[in-house]
Structure formats: C-alpha cells, structure tokens
Amino acid sequence: LVVGGGAAGMAAALALADQGFPVHLVEREAALGGNLRHVFVPRNGSDPQQMLRALAGRVTAHPLITVHLESQVVATSGFRGSFTSTIQHASGSRSIVQHGATILATGAQEYRGPEYGYGSDPRIVTQQEFEARLAAGGELPGSVAMIQCVGPAEQFCSRICCTVALKNALALKQRQPDAQVVILYRDIRTYGFKERLYTQARAAGVIFVRYDDEHRPQVTADGDLTIRAWDPSLRRDLLLRPDLLVLSMPVVPRGDAHQVAGLFKASLDGDGFFLE
User: Fold this and answer.
1) What is the chain's percent helix, strand, coil content, to nearest 5?
2) Which of 40, 61, 99, 155 could join 135 in a cystine, given CB atoms 3.0 to 4.6 angstroms apart?
C-alpha cells in the first residue's frame, strides 16, 4: 500500500510493481502528481510536466498497480507482513486491501503564512505562484524582489527554497534580460551541484543582499510596493520599489500529517514531519 500519488509515491509504486509486487496507490486528489503538478520551469533541460506525464502514464498503465484517486485510507490494522486497510472513495464506497507493508508518501506543501504582507496585496506572491506566472507566458514584471527564509524557515531549512528562487530568477532573466532581480537572503543554501545556479545568477546580474535577524526586510504595500532592507556591506538602508515581491516560502508538513501519523502509528519530529 502506497499512500500519496506524488512523484515519490509514483516512483515507489513503479519500483515495487516492476519487481512483481502488486501495489495499491491511494491519492486523495483527483489526479496524480502532487506538488509536481505545480512545477513548470525546466532545469538542466528537464521538463517537469513531461516527467509528470511520463510517470503518471507508466503508473496507470502498469498491470500490477491499482490507482485509487479521490480516496484516502480511513482505517488500518495488523502487523508487519500482514495488514488490512480500508480505503474510502469519493463516492462513499469502501475497499478492503490486504498488504504486507505501507509506504507513506503523503508529501508536504508550500507555506502560505501572512509574513511580509502575503495575502494582503496581489503584488506579493509565493515562488510557486511566480513559477505559474512564468509558465503562463503573459506579461512579465520588469523588477522583482525575492525574500528568503520566510516564517517557519527561520527555524529550519527546507533545502529547496534557495534553489527554486535561483531557478525562477534565472528563468525571468532568460526571458527578460533587462529585468532587475534582487534576492534578500539570510544564507544561500544551494545543496550539491545546485551551487552552480548561484554562480549563474550572479553572472546574469541578479543582485544578492544579505540580512540578519536584527535587520529583517520591511515591506509596505500602501500605494507603491516598497521594501526597506539593510545592506551590511554599505551599512545603510536600501529602498526597493519592485513590480513584484516573491516570497520563498518553506516546505511545511501537510495539514493532515498528525491524522495520518496517528492512523499508521508513525512518529513525527518537532516540526511535524514524519521521522525516518
């Protein structure tokens, strides 16, 4: 039984089914893909949506994978090697599944808290929303400011926020080279070879300004969108007036993580993520 039909859940289902194990894949949404459905900007020539279509196509066509869309596990019992789980479908009907192991791949979600005025002005968006605008192909902003380490990311690193910001900044510069992009950051953490994105962004003219806990950016959206940021190198305030403010929201656990953890008797860490 694989719970969650995102990229991880589909990959796990395929890996097992290709070895001859029958798999029941449960996804609460009406389509497979999870967060991958909201990733559009290619990196290293790899099209995320093409990858999604290929994965979903292999899953739905595999004779050993049974996909349950708009469904969720409502009960489970048993022990290692012999579990019985109840799956409830959108129609109200239920299925009983016998399985030897459970894989939790319920994923996470982009934080959408009120920090820096998010939700109060349409010119303040998240990276996921900005990426959707880039993919839509409409009019692009002439100037963009990005703020890293928002909300819960002050307590833990999501590991992908900086990479997504750099990827989207480069995508904007590639399509609109004259666009001004300023990234306000606490620490740039582009893990592994993704450090190359940081080098490429600087070469493309993206400006990086560091801030600390005592000098967080101050955002005002009354009339003009303005951001006041302290530049530690110049030791003076900078006043930015971008067309768009993009917040690099962190990855946070799904709202039902505690419910799923209780159902499957799984442990969560202090931030609400499943323990390995």
Assistant:
1) 30, 30, 40
2) 40
What is the Cα–Cα distance from 171 to 48, expressed in whole angstroms?
Answer: 14
- From 149, 142, 105, select the one nearest 127 (Cα to Cα): 149
Phi, psi at 186, each rounded to 5°: -90, -50
For residues 9 and 12, give the distance between their C-alpha atoms in angstroms, rounded to a whole number: 5
So what's the pLDDT on residue 20?
A: 98
Distances (CA, A) of 92 to 26, 88, 95, 97, 130: 15, 6, 10, 16, 37
Structural tokens at position 225: 């969108």
Give pTM, 2 decimals.
0.92
Q: Is residue 105 a contact partner of residue 62, using CB atoms and an 8 Å limit?
A: no
| Residue indicated by tokens 């990827």 | 167
User: What mean pLDDT, rounded, does the chain reach?
Assistant: 95
Q: Among candidates 47, 89, 49, which has minimal Cα distance to 66?
A: 89
Compute the distance between CA of residue 131 and CA of residue 39 in angstroms, rounded to an integer.
7
With contact defined as beta carbons under 8 Å apart, do 59 and 16 qualify?
no
Place 105 in a pLDDT band, splitting at 50, 70 and 90. very high
The phi and psi torsions of 261 (rounded to 5 degrees) equal: -60, -40
- Nearest to 26, CA basis, from 57, 1, 58, 48: 1
Chain-centroid distance, C-alpha 133 = 16
